[in-house]
Amino acid sequence: MSKAFTKESDGDDDDDALAQASDGEAVPVKYYLTPRGFAQLQQELRTLLYTERPKVVEVVSWAAGNGDRSENGDYIYGKKRLREIDRRVRYLTKRLEAAEVVDPAQQQHLKQVFFGATVTFARDDDSEHTVTLVGADEVDVDAGRISWQSPVAKALLKARVGDVVELRTPAGLDHLEILAIRYVVAKA
């Protein structure tokens, strides 16, 4: 079969940002972001649109003027990079349109774990961990920012200080004791 008739996956999971309405129409699904995460996505979008893309377009235009495009590495790589940038721009645009920005400092239920909470907990082995529940595009495990949809976060949701929650892991059942819950604004 000709490659012209096949569709390669572009690597983005655009379908995860869509749900089916009752009339069968695809509608965007809201998803949570902290103000910091929203600002980071906006900055990435601006950088792609106003800095990186124009530079690549300039290189591609120059390379196209050099003649034979089939063996022109600058042209081929530039076109590939433009497709990558455009794909990321589409993804970021959809995410930003569907984003529900939740400021942790504005949370109403300060005694329970919800989106944006910074939680300190102890495991069965007496090790203490501190994590902040953030949106999927803000995850940074090394900095202690985990997705609010991760297994650990799901186990912690709605818990209060002193509660012990169960976390199922591949190694077996683990118990997490909630030691502290804070809602703070993360610095950029």
Structural description of this entry:
- The structure is a single chain.
- With 188 residues, the chain is an alpha/beta fold.
- The strands form three sheets. A five-stranded mixed beta sheet has the order 7-6-5-9-8. The chain has a two-stranded antiparallel ribbon with strand order 1-2. Strands 3-4 form a two-stranded parallel sheet.
- Helix content is 33%, strand content 23%.
- It has helices spanning 35-64, 73-98, 151-156, and strands at residues 18-20, 26-28, 31-33, 99-101, 118-122, 128-134, 145-147, 164-169, 172-182.
- The longest helix has 30 residues, at 35-64.
- It starts with 17 loop residues before the first strand and ends in a 6-residue tail after the last strand.
- It is elongated, with a radius of gyration of 22 Å.
- The protein has two domains: 24-101, Helix Hairpins, CATH 1.10.287.180; 104-182, Chitinase A, domain 3, CATH 3.10.50.
